[in-house]
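In this section we walk through a basic example: taking a raw amino acid sequence and producing a predicted 3D structure, encoded as discrete structure tokens. The instruction is simple. Fold the sequence below.
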Amino acid sequence: MEGKNQLVVSEFLLLRFSEKLEQEMPLFGLFLSIYVVTVIGNLLIMLAIGSNSHLHTPMYFFLSNLSFVDLCLVSTIVPKMLENIMMHSKAISYAGCLAQMYFFMVFTCMDNLLLTVMAYDRFVAICHPLHYVSIMSTQLCGLLVLLSWIVSLLISLLHSMMAMHLSFCKDHNIPHFFCDLSQVLKLSCSDTFINNILMYFATSLLGIVPLTGILFSYSQICSSILRVPSPEGKYKAFSTCGSHLCVVSLFYGTAFGVYLSSSTAHSSWKNSITSVMYTVITPMLNPFIYSLRNKEIKDALRRLTIRPTFSQ
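The resulting token sequence is shown next.
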């Protein structure tokens, strides 16, 4: 009897934001603009860091990786959404949904871990400046990024492989604009107890541990800054981590907003709007935060844009 109620799912339907046709083209224009700005902004950050030897330091090495991950994150979600709007479709194939879910988990996990590594880098730079070069060696920086990739890839692979064994009922409408693991699990006819336990465990582990590390790092940073005697010294010390602190606040602020909205609000539209801040708006704003608050990045971007003019 159970088998009769289960179907071999070939596709899911992403319900997006609006059912009104007249709102689709404005939404297409809005998300296309956001995507273009995000791609250009993060590419410029990576090019500026890569082309300027003065920026070949641990802090900017981690920043270039963060820009790459943000670029990949929006490219996992937005192009499919734009395609569906243009084709007046809501469908995403079963394989496409699993792939989107997997890469979304990989890049959000990488964002989380990279922000933690960057907080540790600022902690060492401000609290142990005399030992900074010896501690944050090229080998350690490469190892930290490699371990972040390994953890992200393995955890996402485990979630995806377990999701592949789920069976689904007649309802295959996902009330979201992308394939989110929690939404896919709700559609399954299978027993998802293990999947949910694993999801909550991974979310707690990758949320609480990195956030605790970031809070500890910045508590030590603030304590060190307050001990600096001159106002100029305090400003200089704070300016070296101000951009990262803004990005951390934006990332975790929107992430907690998604969590609270999904647990308290009953409107899928509200959940989708909150998720946009976390998945699309944050990667777009990160390059602006770093370029506007960081003189070295601004100088590198200026050289990058002026250089072709002189070469002509």
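Looking at the output, two observations stand out. Residues 11 and 93 are 4 Å apart (CA to CA). Confidence is low (pLDDT under 50) at residues 1-5. In the next section we compare this with other chains.
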